[in-house]
């Protein structure tokens, strides 16, 4: 298969761009931008997107009618990013459920997945990845500790090469996920799990639950242990207790 890749200069958001063009583009279509003026993160946050400093990439994928659960998809995408990073020489990234990529305790990449269509019917999914490559030393507006590839590798990476590795890994994981779901990726995810067996707070909407993170299940749900009981949790984000 050949990916149709669109390279844009400055855009509001590569996810928005693809979402607006779902009727025109083929599944597998990729777009990249040099900068975003309205980059979007999860939970309505903004994604600060300085020119040439990161990869801003979005991929459109179509999942067939009857596809049951896209929950594990975000976790699968985290694995794709870790695989691509391994090819750059970084093999010590960790994944924070559902799909943040960390290096030495700081966020290196984030994923925003947006689904259009009916669950249970065919749906188009736009998968957006922001991967910090070489950020300006001072960036306003980022509210959490971050890292970039320049720090992790000690040298500049070729963004074209990196893009190719990232796109290849995203495609492979989407194809595998479409055929077999998340279950075959479970062990790989566990090997990268940042918070396994740690006390965490799960935030979903206004709700906060505290417990011990016991990994994820074959559907990609977080397993939260509370009072000796383990419950699968499907939405939200986690933070380490006390932070
Ligand atoms: C997060 O961690 O909150 C997710 C960040 C996702 C950012 C990427 S950059 C490319 C794509 N376009 C967007 O507007 N967002 C995603």
From TrEMBL:
Transmembrane segments: none annotated. GO terms for molecular function: biotin--[biotin carboxyl-carrier protein] ligase activity. Residues 1-178 form the BPL/LPL catalytic domain. It is an enzyme of class 6 (ligase). The keyword Repressor applies. It catalyses: biotin + L-lysyl-[protein] + ATP = N(6)-biotinyl-L-lysyl-[protein] + AMP + diphosphate + H(+). Acts both as a biotin--[acetyl-CoA-carboxylase] ligase and a biotin-operon repressor. In the presence of ATP, BirA activates biotin to form the BirA-biotinyl-5'-adenylate (BirA-bio-5'-AMP or holoBirA) complex. HoloBirA can either transfer the biotinyl moiety to the biotin carboxyl carrier protein (BCCP) subunit of acetyl-CoA carboxylase, or bind to the biotin operator site and inhibit transcription of the operon. This is Bifunctional ligase/repressor BirA. The chain holds residues 82 to 324 of 324 of the full protein.
């Amino acid at each position: 298969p050949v990916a149709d890749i669109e390279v844009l200069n400055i855009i509001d958001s590569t996810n928005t761009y693809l979402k607006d063009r779902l009727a025109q583009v083929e599944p597998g279509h990729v777009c990249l931008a040099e900068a975003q003026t309205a980059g979007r993160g999860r939970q309505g946050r903004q994604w600060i997107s300085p020119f040439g400093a990161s990869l801003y990439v979005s991929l459109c994928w179509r999942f067939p009618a009857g596809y049951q659960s896209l929950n594990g998809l975000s976790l699968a995408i985290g694995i794709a990013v870790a695989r691509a990073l391994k090819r750059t020489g970084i093999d010590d990234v960790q994944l924070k459920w559902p799909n943040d990529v960390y290096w030495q305790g700081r966020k290196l990449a984030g994923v925003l997945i947006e689904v259009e269509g009916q669950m249970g019917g065919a749906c188009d999914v736009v998968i957006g990845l922001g991967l910090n490559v070489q950020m300006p030393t001072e960036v306003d507006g980022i509210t959490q500790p971050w890292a970039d590839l320049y720090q992790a590798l000690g040298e500049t990476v070729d963004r074209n090469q990196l893009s190719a590795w990232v796109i290849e890994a995203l495609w492979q994981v989407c194809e595998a996920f479409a055929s077999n779901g998340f279950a075959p990726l479970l062990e790989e995810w566990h090997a990268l799990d940042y918070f396994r067996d740690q006390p965490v707070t799960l935030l979903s909407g206004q709700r906060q639950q505290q417990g011990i993170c016991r990994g994820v299940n074959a559907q990609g749900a977080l397993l939260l242990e509370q009072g000796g009981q383990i419950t699968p949790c499907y939405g939200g984000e986690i933070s380490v207790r006390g932070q």
